[in-house]
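Protein 1 of 2
SEQ + STRUCT:
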Amino acid sequence: MKRRILIVEDNVGLSQMQKDWFAQAGYDAVTAISEPIARSLIRKTTFDMILSDVRLPEGNGISLLEWIRREKKDIPFIITTEYVSVPDVVRTIKLGAIDYLPKPVHREHLLELAEDVFKPMVTVRKKEKVMFHRTSPLILQVQKNVRLVASSEMAVMILGANGTGKESVAQSIHQGSERWNKPFVAVNCGALPRELAASLLFGHEKGAFTGADTAKAGYFDMAKGGTLFLDEIGTMSYEIQTMLLRVLQESTYTPIGSSKERVADVRIVSATNEDLLQAIKEGRFREDLYHRLNEFEIQQPSLAECPEDILPLAEFFRERYSRELKRETSGFSDDARRRMLAYPWPGNVRELQNRVKRSVLVSESPLLEMEGLNTEIHQHNNETIPLTAIRPLKDETQEKMNIINALKACNGHREQAAAMLKINPATLYRKMKKYGLK
């Protein structure tokens, strides 16, 4: 059954475009132009996600979110707006919004968010997954580090942007370890409800709390003897961090409602796209837990940093989806190959995979064209700036030039530049002041 998404937006052209994006990605999207219409639809229909503008002709996105919370409807909610307000951001996050997107909202970013929202809370793999073997220098270094650490019991932390393939690295570590024939359990930490976290992680006994009609195994039980992969570790609440730290320190845990301790016989591998050192400074992440999880660190590079992998990966996905979708394809046109190599791939391997899959599905020719890959931004003075010069902020040696390029490409529009750099406008303003940019 398709996931159903409600788009609350008074710009009919924009809402139709977003509806088309979701439809192309396999979702069922419905639109509403005001808060009263949205409320009426929510009362009659079950939605899996809501995307709402703040400013509406009747009502607004924040009051809609407040109403949903009063109605005790647990629907993932994303706010969009052209006018970024820090108080509004704080208010929506406190109300439980999962993200706050400045306009213009980019297709790949929006679909990536939806994929994260609908990602299962836990996945158990007992069989080896077939993975593509990449050959770019940076990936070869990652593979070398994987071989070095796999046979140990060290806790590994994998760092990298969304869509780079951090879970594939974790699976490679598992497959290279002595635990390879035991379960690999991947937990989406961003989806762990605070009030159920202890039960989900450690399990519970029958009658432990209201609704516990049967005993249930937790993720530590499910991964026994194997590897527990904690994805998006940076989103874990402070309370859950404390529970996890206690288990890692003592190597034991107790299911809810039980008096018997169990041994935590798992290898821990974690991953994040967040700067955890900054999160520690801001008091959002425990430093002692960070050191427990980060006995060995692996940095997974972006796809743009591994251009040698782009075309081989595209061929790999083309062959896979040609089989799955039962479509006859023979390769990519010369123009498609040129566009793929010139495109910056902000959504990384995941974006490449999704674009190839769609191209296989919609192509009327065996030779795929990969339409829709815009490789440059045009300014009003007809000057062009290649998007490859604009990447998400990484370190201080690149930041200033990246900010200058983004501002230039957006004709000085700060909110658009912030969206391009995948940071919020407040962070951009702070960094512009730091580097003396006005």
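Protein 2 of 2
SEQ + STRUCT:
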Amino acid sequence: MTVGPPIEELHFSDAPNVSSVPGPRSRELIDQQFELESRVVTYPRSLPVAFEEGRGATLRDADGNVYIDFVAGAGVLNVGYSNPYVVEAVQEQTGRITHTLDFPSEARVEFLERLSSIAPGDLAGNSRLAFGGPTGTDAIEASIKLARANSDGSSLVAFRGGNHGQTAGALSLSGVNKYKTKGRGPYVPGVEHVPYPYPLQQGVSAEEAVERSIRELRELLEDPYSGIPDPIGVWVEAIQGSRGVVVPPREFLPRVRALCDEHDLMLVVDEIQTGMGRTGKWFASEWSETTPDAIAMGKALGGGHALSGIMFHEQFDTWEPGTHKGTFRGYVPAMVAGTRAIEYIEAHDLLAHGREVGELIRDRLRAAGETSPYVAEVRGEGMLTGIEFHDDDGEPFTQFVADLQRYCLDHGLVVWVSGRHGCVIRLLPPLVLTHELAERGCDVLCGGIEALTKRYA
């Protein structure tokens, strides 16, 4: 059976092709949105466009401008916008039944089997899956409940700079202070944060960055005066995406795994952004050959549709029926889409493709960095890349990054900003991004770096 069209046929052929951004219709729609929707709206403040249609790794706005997309819905659309192989199955399923709570169906069982087939390490053949709410933060909440169900303790350990979601438990685990604004607390008590290896920001070698993290984690777990009694687990991102694509040294996760084993703690790896092939493997923890006890999944899990869940070792399946719920655990079109996305990725070898094209992007950006003193570091895995910018004093160059994002938009490339004080351009293009589109996008991005370097020099 043919698994969808080749990736070269998925996109708008004329991308990028823009005139005036934003165009009049985009301005009109943005004004209407801001009149009706809460101030919490984020993306159109930095990217003032109204998108109307997407194909593969390209977007068309309400005024007919066509863009290359290096954001993919913040990592949701790994197989691209409107992938025909996914759309066909979703439309068929929607015409039959859309919601089944947690009653079995062929579509649900098939999705469970496909997810089990890509389980990493010791989870292969020994895993269980649980769905709940539709967003990644729901998966984190479920993982907290799972850890508590398997321990008599109460405290939780996470890492500074992590971003695990926006609900109370997930926010408590997160190490991003700007999300913990007035009116958001109180938070879950008993959460302790330790440093995450970030050699560039810490001003140390990769080895020392790992040593600092492991030393503080060990002290927290073993010092009788650490102030954190009876921890139940450790929550960690395989790569800290929202912090600016901070990729830890390979030895970091195995050493965290070893400490969890030593102290009988559950290791929960947040793969909401990095999972489902984003980094060139199904799960980013596979790069360090580390098998978590539980994996939090979201974003791309539902093939572009809202779905989250956790995959965990069967030994922790101690829940009683009904102790974890979620209305949209029965949203079957997302499960069909998720199955189709896995099949499409496998049939078109998109894990290897993502590794290859991602390295192409990073090579182009490193070459651009050789002629710009403001490029502090280019890092990433697969189709997840961060470019960090510092000013002449070595401080986060926030204005440069904001200007670069706008330059890219004006020239038909959609990118997003993240990292400390907004000093990182974060790239999450769909895995279906072709070599040609990657080169075109890099032409824009590298051209922007060159133009702004001259402006600020």
